[in-house]
Design brief:
Layout lengths: L5 H17 L18 H11 L2 H10 L2 H12 L7 H10 L6 H21 L2
Helix pairs in contact: 1-2, 1-3, 2-4, 5-6
Length: 123
């Protein structure tokens, strides 16, 4: 359920951003440089899924659509393969209702590799 209340969306973003800062997700940035206006939605989604827990991830679904979250997950987290395998397997099953998470992840990773190889061959 996406909220239409701009204030509530902003508050959720601020809360998530504060929690990401506590987790040192922005260790390479100047602390003052990271704020609600400077972070892209895709980055907020990916970092929340990577570093925070279920209650915070559930907050994402209040301010973004399921398809948007899934798209960000597929583009930014799934390609990390073995490094985030267990986490991605859980997301595939729990949030994106994959009946066979292992097979689903393998197909997404293969698709990503083929896309990279296809781009490389066009040079």
């Amino acid at each position: 359920m996406i909220t239409d209340d701009k204030y509530q969306r902003l508050e959720i973003k601020r809360t998530l951003l504060g929690q990401l800062k506590q987790e040192h997700a922005f260790w390479s940035y100047e602390p003052e440089s990271v704020n609600v206006d400077s972070i892209e939605d895709d980055q907020l989604i990916a970092l929340t899924m990577r570093y925070l827990d279920l209650p915070e991830i559930n907050q994402l679904f209040k301010i973004y659509s399921g398809p948007k979250i899934k798209n960000v997950w597929k583009r930014l987290l799934v390609p990390e393969g073995e490094y985030l395998y267990t986490l991605n397997r859980f997301f595939a099953w729990y949030y994106f209702e994959a009946k066979s998470p292992d097979t689903y992840l393998k197909s997404l990773q293969t698709r990503h590799i083929n896309k990279l190889l296809g781009k490389r061959c066009n040079y």
